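C-alpha cells for Large ribosomal subunit protein uL4. Go.
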Amino acid sequence: MSTVSVLNIKNEKVGEIDLNEKIFDLDVKEHLLHDVVRYQRAARRAGTASTKTRVEVRGGGAKPWRQKGTGRARAGTRTSPLWRGGGVTFGPKPRDYAFKLNRKVKKLAVAMAVSARFQEGNLMVLDAFSMDAIKTKDFMSIMNTLDVDNCLLVTTSDNEIVAKSARNVNGVKVMTADGLNVYDILLHKKLILVQPVIESLEERLLV
C-alpha cells in the first residue's frame, strides 16, 4: 500500500490515507494512454464539414452552349467541378470520427493516468473543498495557499459554487469523479482529489 498525506484547504496536514496499488501505483504504458486520448479527441470531433457534389449544386439543366462551332471546349453542365461555382469532387461530408475501444482498456488507462500523477508527486488529496459563495477571488486564494496554478480538481458530486468560482480561472478545471478521464488528467499538471473521490474511483475502476 502507498500512503499519501491528506491536507485541508489551508494546506495543513490533517491525516494520511492508504492508496490501492492497483489504481495508484501501476506501470504506466504511454502507448495505451495515447490510444485513449486519440479515442476521446476523435469522439469530440464535430465532423460537420460538408460540400456539394455536382448533383447537389443548383442549376446545370441546360447545356451552356452547343457542342460544335463555338471554338470553345465542350461543356455539358454548369455544375461541373471544373467550373467556378460547380460541385466539389471528393469533398468532405458529415461523418463520425469515433472508433471503438474496449471498456477494460479505458478503465486501465484512467488508472494509469492517475498513477502517473502520483508517481510524479503531482497528486494531492484534500479532506474537503467547500466555499460559502461563488467568488473567483476566494477560489484563487485557496489555490495560492495550496501553491497550485494548473490543476484538475475532482469532487464527489456537482458543487456549483466551486465549479462557477473556478470556471474563469485559466489552467484550472473542476469535475466530478464520474467524469474523470485520461485526457483531462494529462492536460493538467496537478491532480487534486477530494478524499471521498478515492473510494468512488476504487468502485469504478476495480470492477
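The chain has seven helices and six strands.
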